[in-house]
Protein backbone atom coordinates (compact mmCIF):
# COMPACT_ATOMS: atom_id res chain seq x y z
CA UNK A 1 0.00 0.00 0.00
CA UNK A 2 2.93 2.34 0.53
CA UNK A 3 3.49 2.38 -3.24
CA UNK A 4 -0.16 3.36 -3.73
CA UNK A 5 0.14 6.11 -1.11
CA UNK A 6 3.38 7.34 -2.66
CA UNK A 7 1.77 7.38 -6.12
CA UNK A 8 -1.25 9.29 -4.78
CA UNK A 9 1.08 11.85 -3.18
CA UNK A 10 2.89 12.35 -6.50
CA UNK A 11 -0.40 12.79 -8.39
CA UNK A 12 -1.67 15.18 -5.72
CA UNK A 13 1.50 17.27 -5.88
CA UNK A 14 1.35 17.41 -9.69
CA UNK A 15 -2.32 18.41 -9.59
CA UNK A 16 -1.64 21.14 -6.98
CA UNK A 17 1.24 22.49 -9.09
CA UNK A 18 -0.98 22.58 -12.19
CA UNK A 19 -3.72 24.43 -10.30
CA UNK A 20 -1.26 27.02 -8.94
CA UNK A 21 0.04 27.62 -12.50
CA UNK A 22 -3.52 28.30 -13.70
CA UNK A 23 -4.10 30.84 -10.92
CA UNK A 24 -0.97 32.90 -11.66
CA UNK A 25 -1.69 36.11 -13.54
CA UNK A 26 -0.34 36.04 -17.06
CA UNK A 27 1.95 38.74 -18.34
CA UNK A 28 0.54 40.65 -21.28
CA UNK A 29 2.04 39.73 -24.63
CA UNK A 30 4.78 42.05 -25.80
CA UNK A 31 3.70 44.22 -28.70
CA UNK A 32 6.11 44.38 -31.57
CA UNK A 33 6.23 47.44 -33.75
CA UNK A 34 5.28 46.77 -37.38
CA UNK A 35 8.18 46.78 -39.81
CA UNK A 36 7.95 48.13 -43.33
CA UNK A 37 7.98 45.50 -46.07
CA UNK A 38 11.08 45.30 -48.23
CA UNK A 39 10.63 44.76 -51.95
CA UNK A 40 14.17 45.58 -53.03
CA UNK A 41 14.75 42.14 -54.54
CA UNK A 42 11.60 42.49 -56.67
CA UNK A 43 12.61 45.94 -57.88
CA UNK A 44 16.02 44.65 -58.90
CA UNK A 45 14.50 41.74 -60.84
CA UNK A 46 11.86 43.81 -62.61
CA UNK A 47 14.29 46.59 -63.48
CA UNK A 48 16.96 44.09 -64.50
CA UNK A 49 17.35 42.00 -67.59
CA UNK A 50 14.67 40.16 -69.50
CA UNK A 51 16.65 36.95 -68.91
CA UNK A 52 14.45 36.14 -65.91
CA UNK A 53 11.48 35.78 -68.27
CA UNK A 54 13.11 32.74 -69.90
CA UNK A 55 11.68 30.60 -67.08
CA UNK A 56 8.08 31.28 -68.12
CA UNK A 57 8.36 31.26 -71.91
CA UNK A 58 7.48 27.55 -72.21
CA UNK A 59 4.32 27.71 -70.06
CA UNK A 60 1.26 26.91 -72.21
CA UNK A 61 -1.71 29.29 -72.07
CA UNK A 62 -5.19 29.08 -73.59
CA UNK A 63 -6.08 31.87 -76.00
CA UNK A 64 -9.71 32.35 -76.97
CA UNK A 65 -11.63 34.93 -78.97
CA UNK A 66 -15.05 35.98 -77.78
CA UNK A 67 -17.46 37.48 -80.27
CA UNK A 68 -20.18 38.06 -77.67
CA UNK A 69 -22.19 36.71 -74.75
CA UNK A 70 -25.79 36.20 -73.80
CA UNK A 71 -27.82 34.80 -70.91
CA UNK A 72 -30.78 32.50 -71.42
CA UNK A 73 -32.92 30.10 -69.48
CA UNK A 74 -32.18 26.39 -69.77
CA UNK A 75 -35.66 25.76 -71.20
CA UNK A 76 -34.88 28.22 -74.04
CA UNK A 77 -31.47 26.63 -74.61
CA UNK A 78 -33.04 23.17 -74.92
CA UNK A 79 -35.47 24.46 -77.57
CA UNK A 80 -32.65 25.59 -79.89
CA UNK A 81 -32.26 23.61 -83.05
CA UNK A 82 -30.31 23.68 -86.28
CA UNK A 83 -30.65 27.10 -87.92
CA UNK A 84 -31.65 28.85 -84.67
CA UNK A 85 -30.22 32.34 -84.13
CA UNK A 86 -28.91 33.36 -80.73
CA UNK A 87 -28.76 37.12 -80.17
CA UNK A 88 -25.54 38.32 -78.50
CA UNK A 89 -25.04 41.41 -76.36
CA UNK A 90 -22.44 42.86 -78.75
CA UNK A 91 -23.34 44.92 -81.76
CA UNK A 92 -22.17 44.05 -85.27
CA UNK A 93 -18.84 45.70 -85.98
CA UNK A 94 -17.77 45.90 -82.34
CA UNK A 95 -14.28 44.53 -81.68
CA UNK A 96 -13.95 40.95 -80.50
CA UNK A 97 -12.20 40.23 -77.21
CA UNK A 98 -9.01 38.16 -77.01
CA UNK A 99 -8.72 36.30 -73.71
CA UNK A 100 -5.65 34.54 -72.32
CA UNK A 101 -6.61 32.00 -69.64
CA UNK A 102 -9.91 33.85 -69.28
CA UNK A 103 -8.41 37.35 -68.82
CA UNK A 104 -8.94 40.09 -71.39
CA UNK A 105 -5.62 41.11 -72.99
CA UNK A 106 -6.61 42.61 -76.36
CA UNK A 107 -9.40 43.44 -78.80
CA UNK A 108 -9.50 42.84 -82.52
CA UNK A 109 -11.47 42.16 -85.67
CA UNK A 110 -12.05 38.95 -87.56
CA UNK A 111 -10.12 38.32 -90.78
CA UNK A 112 -9.97 35.44 -93.26
CA UNK A 113 -6.53 34.33 -94.45
CA UNK A 114 -6.17 31.35 -96.81
CA UNK A 115 -9.74 30.26 -96.00
CA UNK A 116 -9.02 30.21 -92.24
CA UNK A 117 -10.37 32.59 -89.63
CA UNK A 118 -7.95 34.77 -87.74
CA UNK A 119 -8.05 37.91 -85.65
CA UNK A 120 -6.28 41.17 -86.31
CA UNK A 121 -5.33 42.89 -83.05
CA UNK A 122 -6.58 46.46 -82.94
CA UNK A 123 -6.09 47.30 -79.25
CA UNK A 124 -3.87 45.87 -76.51
CA UNK A 125 -5.31 46.23 -72.99
CA UNK A 126 -3.01 48.24 -70.73
CA UNK A 127 -1.75 46.64 -67.51
CA UNK A 128 -3.66 49.21 -65.41
CA UNK A 129 -6.90 48.34 -67.23
CA UNK A 130 -6.26 44.62 -66.67
CA UNK A 131 -5.73 45.22 -62.94
CA UNK A 132 -8.90 47.33 -62.67
CA UNK A 133 -10.92 44.46 -64.22
CA UNK A 134 -9.71 42.13 -61.44
CA UNK A 135 -11.44 44.19 -58.73
List the helices and strands and how they pair.
Blueprint lengths: L1 H22 L16 H8 L15 E4 L7 H5 L17 E5 L2 E11 L2 E9 L2 H8 L1
Antiparallel strand pairs: 1-2, 2-3, 3-4
Plain-language structure description:
This protein has 4 helices and 4 strands. The longest helix has 22 residues, at 2-23. The protein has 135 residues and is α+β, with helices and mostly antiparallel strands. The chain has a domain at 58-82 and 91-135: SpoA-like (Surface presentation of antigens (SPOA), Roll), CATH 2.30.330. It has a 4-stranded antiparallel β-sheet, with no helix packed on it.
List keywords for this structure.
single chain; elongated; alpha+beta; 21% strand; 135 residues; four-stranded antiparallel sheet
Question: How would you summarize what this structure contains?
Answer:
The protein is built from 4 helices and 4 strands, in the order H-H-E-H-E-E-E-H. The protein is α+β, with helices and mostly antiparallel strands and 135 residues long.
